Amino acid sequence: MSTPEKLYEGKAKILYKTEDPDILLTVFKDDATAFNAQKRGSISGKGEMNCAISSYLFQELAASGIPNHFIDRPTATEMRVQALKIVPLEVVVRNIAAGSLCQQTGLTLGTILPYPLVEFYYKNDALGDPLLTRDRLLLLELATPDQIEQLQHLALRVNEMLSAFFQRCAINLVDFKLEFGLDRQQNLILADEISPDTCRLWDQTVNDPNRRILDKDRFRQDLGEVAAAYQLVLERVLTQVTTQ
Ligand code: C5P
C-alpha cells in the first residue's frame, strides 16, 4: 500500500487521508505542548492512552445519541474518523472554576459553578485562541445563530453524559474542550478527541489539590507523574465501560 497522504500535523495528533474520501486516520502522538506551544515535551505512552480514552468516550457518547466522528480504532494509537469540515472553534464547558476562568475573572480555583458555562474560543494559534463573544462569532461568520444554538445544546448534552460517566469513575469533570465539524449535509458532528489532554479531571478519592489532578495540568504545572495520571484515568474509564 502507498504511504498515506498527511493532511495535517497538530501538536498531539497527525491526520492522514485514506483510500476512502469520507474517512480519515488520526494518529495520536506522545508529544505534548502547552501555553500555545511555548512549553513542549513528551509524555510516554500518551498517544496510546488518549487514543483509547477518546475511543471509549466517543462510543459512550454515540450510545447516548450524540453524533461524533469516531469509526473505529484499528491500532493502539490510531483512530479512523469521519471526514468533516472542521469548524475553527474550541467549545469549552466548565463545571468548576479552574484555568483561564480563574485567571480572567478572579473566581477561586475549585468554585462549583451554579450552572455549566459554555464558552467559544477562536481556534487560531497566531491570535492565541481568543475568547469570542456571540457577536464576534457572528461578525467573523464562524457560525450562524442556529449553529451557535446547536453547538451550545450539543456541548451541554456532552457535559451531562460525560459528567455522569466520570462521576461513576470517582472523577470530577472540571472542564473540557470540544471541537465540531460539518458533514456533507451540514450537520454538526462532534470531532477531535476527548482525553486528559482536553479535559480537567480531578480524582474524588484524593483531597490534596495537586495530587488529585489527573490531566494535562500535571504537565502544564510541572507536577510530575503525568503518564501515571493518564493511566489511572484510562483504567477507571475501562472499568466503567466493561462493567456497565
Ligand atoms: O485554559 P482553559 O482554562 O481555558 O481551558 C479550559 C479547558 O479546555 C481545559 O480542560 C483545557 O485542557 C481545554 N483546552 C484544550 N485546548 C486548548 C485550550 C483549552 O483542550 N487549546
From TrEMBL:
Keywords: ATP-binding, Ligase, Nucleotide-binding, Purine biosynthesis. GO terms for molecular function: ATP binding; phosphoribosylaminoimidazolesuccinocarboxamide synthase activity. It catalyses: 5-amino-1-(5-phospho-D-ribosyl)imidazole-4-carboxylate + L-aspartate + ATP = (2S)-2-[5-amino-1-(5-phospho-beta-D-ribosyl)imidazole-4-carboxamido]succinate + ADP + phosphate + 2 H(+). It is an enzyme of class 6 (ligase). NCBIfam families: purC. Belongs to the SAICAR synthetase family. This is Phosphoribosylaminoimidazole-succinocarboxamide synthase. It comes from Neosynechococcus sphagnicola sy1.
